[in-house]
Structures are given as structure tokens and as C-alpha cells.
């Protein structure tokens, strides 16, 4: 299924957004996030952005105080996922204007909707910022 | 609306209030959250939908970030979903896609809501419901909503159509029969030039092709077109993934595609696409030499890049190549070796895997040497990673790649001395295992074991205890190879052994027992000492027992024990040492230790008299006793010198049941046997002898008798100990003494070999790694005892089972078309056309037998027909629906239970699956 989950975690290891594309119970989620955070946050800038975990890979990237972690199947293209993360950040940047951790915290559902525009069923469906954002803005107007 | 709910909504905290409160709370996060949850539980029961939806939104937040269960709100979410207001609906869909799953009880209540929204004129409502469906669809939802999704697949709103395409994947997965309805429309979307649609549909196909590539071969021309025309890297990557799966199935396709891929590789500036090209080539086009060369060039660029990401991926790609083209790895070995000291542990592990892939019997020594040096310098984690991979590589398939076992054994010793080494257990197993399997290496093994035992510093390292236990066992079992048993004895009984855990302590004592017996035996029974006469006298008395043994061991002992002559005096000292070291252990809390210490001390008591006598005076009256003691020594020594070989797991089954043995007989008989034996053994040993060579059953019965049968007891203890080592042993049929088997001529050869390796080390410190070196072994590879099945656990290359599920069956039906083309007979068989074979074997033969019936032309013309069909959508849709209808009817008529029906269909599927190989005529490309 390509992408299995997308996490945003801050430097303290607190989850700021969690989107799973397969059903996990709360306990499984808690355990998984704990393990991943422990594994990835300990790494430094000189180390690569890919971590093997259980039977899949985590591709992560850090923007300021926020880590973007994407769990993918083993044959997913790691570099493409890095580009995807960057696209996600740019999209949010455009929407919120210089996005920061607080924006995501206070607009969690909006961040979720953005992700839903980009990823469906674990595969990336949309990669154009304009295409991602226009429905979001229209929906905002509609409600 | 009643008062309280109005009040509620007026004073309700919004999500923003909640988040702010959470950040500023003073009562502790958990307390704050549980208070908030209480509020939410109250608010969510409100009849006001705004209040309800706000509560739901807050709940989503707490569930998503603070792991709070929101399943109690499932029904409330449905209530919010029915709100006419879009903003409520949005929240409801958000909550549902976050919290619903297959076992949510109210899941089926959502069907009508979804159907309503899927047919809504508001494209955002449609999009939300599609999104939701892609998250929560189960079999029933997928089945019930297939018609709606089918309609949306050709929606003229791109936004909706794109999402419908993405949903199809989940619908197919859950309800394979939907393939017959939707597949053609999905394929039509492949020909769409809008990048939005294309990226969605290619994504779907790349997932589908992952599961069952063969079914999608007929679509190769469309994919090819996309590959050549695509402007978007995302799409290209997905298409490459599809081709990576398809190409191995169809050589003509591979021929066709390899060139465009290489073009792409040369031209593209995007690293992600470049890497995908490289990976595609090395996984699926590995027989195209020039393509592989090109890819390897790119891999090298990746590996030497500063960016750790590229370096990692380069190494990763290299390890994919390694399985087929080992030369590539050797060509790049400098980079690989350098990466071993990279700051990133992931890169290090990746390069370690590569290094291990290069290992062969020619270079294993060199590579291991280099790696052990790295292990010395690296952090504990990676150090053990290295040691673990050396150990597992070297022991693969019963030490397949090891030629020089002397070297390997000393490497094991060296590895266990590395400060961070935590692989004690594995080293222990291998030391014992090698000792048992490879006779020629025992001399070296004992030397290594001695070096380990004699070092008091090692006893303090708890990770090493397992290694030491193996060393103790080895030096006890093969003590006749020891240069200096007395020194060994001191090592085994040194005061610091108190640091060992009891189980290993027990092994130490048992080994000390063996060493002691060996010393005594050498000194009194055969040595030229005062006991010589009595020894030879006693020889005669049980000549019949072990003439060969005695003779054999004499020769060997003469060879090995020259360095440390064992005199009476040293024996006396030895006995004193044993008493001194073990008496405190008589009070040990561990039964094993206590029991074994008692054994050994009991034995010493028996022997002491003679030892003292023979050293002091040589009177005649002591002769009688001397004979007695010698007999005891003789007896115990014989018990120890029986060689135990490895036994295959199934060996027990192969032993024929002897005549006259009835296993079901009353066990009470055993008692009489026992009492028979007990009596004589407590008196005199000459009587006790019979069980030495007689039936095993009497052996085991005597185990508990401490005084009587020292030999028996120790044998059983020994057996116990060996069991603990994870191997199963039975005494080999003929009792041969180990020393028999060691050709004395080997000794000088061994020395030479040692020198050789020494010079090797010097060379290796200068140069790094030289794979493909000529072996420098001066002697042939020794025999490694292997057992038939038990040992044959070769590292099997697992072929991923070609997953044939009902989904792919359905896809094949559509693509290879069985309904329209095949004559009427097949039409009547329609329901069976999606029947599926569980037994692949069956399926394959079926497919092959069908090959002749349906030819090339058929399927290709079928494909063209599809396309022409595609033009008139209405007509087609009708067609499809009709077909669906008939399907359903037939189902209903044949069985009331749809599930059962499905499984039955699956079972018969193979009958209809047409051939695949002949499907792609070249002209389509």
C-alpha cells in the first residue's frame, strides 16, 4: 500500500499529527510511535533519513522543531517520499504562511484534510500545491 | 431545543479552547484531559448538532494525539453525518475515517449516508465520502457501493474522478467481484492525459501489479506509452515499479523497455527518478549487461556522494546487485569498506551486509580479520552486529566456507576477547559444535580453550561466561590434546571461578573431574611410575573391555604429553588442590555444583590413598589397594573416553527395535534389574563392570547411586550437560578413543600453518581487503561430520509465493476476456469464470493445458474489442450491469449463501484462466 502512516512529532517526542492508512489499535499506535520516536529522534544531521523498522522503512525529515515521519513499504522510493514530505511542508507553508508547530496543533483537522487531498489509500494522488489547496479553501468557504 | 443544551452550547469549549487549556493547565495533563473527556461525553449527547460536532472534533483531537479511545462516539458520529450542514459533515467524516474499522458495530449503518453523498451534486461531499470509503470500506460496503464508485469513475469532474480512481484499490481488495464492473473503466482512465487522473490510476496499478503482476501484462503497451511520454517524475516512478514487476515475466517486454529506462537514467536530473531507474534495472533487468553497467556507474556516484541519504541508497542498491553480480561489489569494495566507519549506523550495517556478501572460502580469513579490527574500534552495538554476522556467515551450512578450522577456532577465541562482545552464546555453541564435528581441529581447540580459561581477567566479564563454559567443556572432553593438564587443572579451579554462575561452575567442576582422571590415568595406569606393575596387571583383567582403547590412547598420550610429565608428586599436589578448591563448594546452594563437587571429592578420597602410598612407600600391602584404585581410575577413564558424536534428530527413529524388547512391559521389572546391579557395585568394582558395556537401561537406573558407580553417574551427568548444549548425543556404537583419530603427523603442518596466518595478518594490516585470493592453506580441509537431514538447513532462497487471490482472478477474467470471446459453452459457464484455485499446482497445470485452446489472436483481438467497446460508455455500462445482474441471479439460484458461493467459485477458478505468456504480441509495443 505504499505509505502506511504519516506522523508529525516535535523535538520532545510529542505527536502532533498521526495519520494511519491501516487500522491500528490505540495500544499498537502508542507502542509504534514510541519506538519510532526513540529511534529517529536520536539520530543526527549527518545520518541518513531512512530507518528500517520492523518490516518497513521510515523516511523522515526535520523542519525546525518538527519531525515529519513517513512509514513506507520496503520497495517504496525513499527519495520520492522525501520529496513528498517537502511538498507537504511547502503546501502547509503556502496555506498557513510560514507554518509552525502551533499552526498544525490548532488546525489539526485542516492538516488532515490536506493530507487527504495528497494521499489516498496509502498512495500519493496529488502533487500540485494549487490542486491540493483549492478544495481546502473552497471547503472552508462552504462551511 | 431545551434549556440545558442551549446553555451547553453557549458555554461549550471549542477545540481551540481545549488546546489552549491543555497547554496552560496546572492540574496535570492527564487530569485535564479526563476532565475534558467528561465534558465531551456530556456534550456529545446533546441534541444540538453544533454542540455535538464540536464535541466530536475535540474527541478526534484527543484520540489522535493523546491516544484516547473514541469508539464510544461511533454512533454520535453517524448522527453528525446526517446533518445537512457541510461543516458538520466534514467533521463527521473526519471522525469516522480516524476511528472506524472493520469491527466497528455501526459500520453498516453508514452505507446509506455514503450512497447519498456519493451521488450528491456537491463535489466536496462526494470527495469526502470517497475519502471515507477508502479508509473504512469492508466487504459489505465495497459490495454495496460498487455501482456508485463505478459511476464516479467516469465523472466529468476531474477532482471527483481522481478520488474515485484511488478508492477503487480498496474496493477491489475487499470485494474482488467489483473488478468485473469497474476494471474496464479504470483502464480507460489509463489513457487519460490529465496528469491528475494519470497519477492516481498509475498508483492504483502499481499497487495491483505488486500483488499479481502476471494479470497486468496485457496492459504493458499503455504503461509503455506512459513511461515514454510522462513528464511527471511521480508517475514515471510508479510506472517503473510496474515494469520492475512485469519485465521478469515477459522477456520480449524487457527487451523493449530496457532502452527507454536507460535513456531516462541518463537524462533525468531528479535523484528520486534516477534511483528508481537504477533499482528497476538491478532488480529486474540484471541480465542486460550494458544497463547494469550504467546503473552501477550511477550507484557508484551515489555511494561517494556526501549526502548520507544517497550513500545509503547506493549501498542498498549495491546489495541488490550483489545477489546476481558479485563482481560489482568487488569492484567497489574500497567504498564499501570505507563506509564501515561511517558515522551513521544504518550505513554501516548496510555496508556490513555487503561485505558479508563478498565472503567466500578464499577470502573469509582476510575479511574476518578486517572486520574484527573494525569491531575492536566501533561502538558496542555495531561491534556485536559485526561479530554476529561473522559468526552466522561462517557457520552457514555446517561451516561450508571454512577450510582452515584451526584459524577459525582461534578467531572465535579472539572474538570472545573483544571488550564489547556479547555473542557468548553463539560462540559457545560453535566451539562445542566444531569440537564434535571436526576431529582434526581439537588440538587447536584445546589450546584456544586453555588460553581463555587461564586468563583470570575474563572471568569478570559476564558476557564471556558462556564462552568459558564451552572452553571448560572442550578442555575436559579433549584433555588428551592438552600440553599441560596440570596447568589446565589450576585454571579450572582458580579462585575467581566463584564469579561464574552455578550452571557454568558445574561444567567447570565436571571438566576438572575429567582432567584429573586423565592425569591419574597417565600417571598410574600407563605411566612408567610405581603403579606400573599393578596397572599392567589390571590391564589383563579387563582386557576384553577395551584393548583397542588402551593401545590407541597410549600412542597418542606419548605424543602430546611430553611437555609436562606427570609425576606422583604433582598428582599429590593436584589432589590437594582439588580438595582445597572444592571443599567450600560442598555447601553450595546450587544442587548441580554441590553434587558435582561431591562427586569429585568422593573420587579423590578413593584415589588419595594410593597416590599417597605410591609416593611414600612401595610396600606389598599397599599393592592390593593400588590395584583397587587403579581399577577405579581405569574404569572412570574409560567412561570418559567414550566418544560421543553428533546424532541426527531423526536417529532415534532409525534404530530398529531389538528382538525381545517389549516396550510395553511392566516397568516393575526394572526394579529387579536395579537391585541386581546395586548389590555388586557397592561392594567391588570388578563386579560392577558389566554395565560398562551392557545395556543402557541399567545405566540410567544407576544414575542416582552416588557412591557405587562413579563412572555411571558421571556419564549421565555428562550426558545431561551435553543436552544443555543443544545437541543430542548418543554414545557411538564402537567406543573409540579420540586420540586415536588424530594423526600425529599433523603437528608440524599445523605449526607451518600458524606461521602462514601470522604473516597474513601482517600483510592485511597494510593492505585492506583482497577478495579472490588464492587459498594459502597448507593442508586440505578437514572432515566435518555432517548428518543427513538434521544439518541440512541450507540458507534457503525463499521464493515469494505468487499470490493468487480472487482479485487477480477477476482481473485476469476481464483482461484476458473469457466471456465474450469464448464460444457459447463458456458463456454458460460464466460463474465458474471467476473461480479460483487454491492449489497453485493444480492451477498451473490447468493453465498450461489451456494454452493450446486459447491462442494469441484470441486474446489480442479481445483486447481491441475492449477498446472499441470503451467508446460507447453507456452501452458498456449497461452491458456491465446486465452482466452483474446475471451474475447475481446465478449466484442466488445456485446458493443462498454468498460467502460460500464465493469460496466455491474460487476453488474452481483455474478452469477458466487463459494463458498469459502468449498475450502480448510484439506489435502492441
What does this molecule look like?
The complex is a heterodimer of chains A (143) and B (925). Chain A has one domain: 2-Layer Sandwich (Beta-Lactamase). Chain A contains five helices and seven strands, in the order ββαβββαααββα. Chain A has helices at 26-41, 78-96, 101-106, 108-118, 129-142; strands at residues 3-10, 15-20, 50-53, 56-63, 66-72, 119-120, 123-124. Helix content of chain A is 46%, strand content 26%. With 143 residues, chain A is an alpha+beta fold. In chain A, α2 packs across α5 and α4 (108-118) crosses α5. Chain B has 49 helices and two strands. The chains are: A alpha+beta (143), B mainly alpha (925). Chains A and B meet through β2, α1, β3, α2 and α4 of A and α4, α6, α8, α10 and α12 of B.
Which short descriptors sum up this protein?
heterodimer, A: 143 residues, alpha+beta, Beta-Lactamase, 46% helix, B: 925 residues, mainly alpha, two-stranded antiparallel ribbon, 49 helices, 2 strands, 1% strand
State which percent range the strand residues of chain A make up: 25-35%
CATH topology of chain A: Beta-Lactamase
Biggest sheet: strand arrangement of chain B: 1-2
Q: How much helical structure, as a percent, in the residues of chain A? A: 40-55%
**How large is the count of helical segments of chain A?**
5
How much of the polypeptide of chain B forms β-strand, as a percent range? under 5%
Largest interface: A-B, 50 and 64 residues
Nearest-angstrom radius of gyration of chain B? 39 Å
CATH A-level architecture of chain A: 2-Layer Sandwich
Organism (chain B): Gossypium mustelinum (Cotton)
Protein name (chain B): AP-3 complex subunit delta
GO cellular component, one term (chain B): endosome membrane
Biased composition (Basic residues) (chain B): 771-780, 861-878
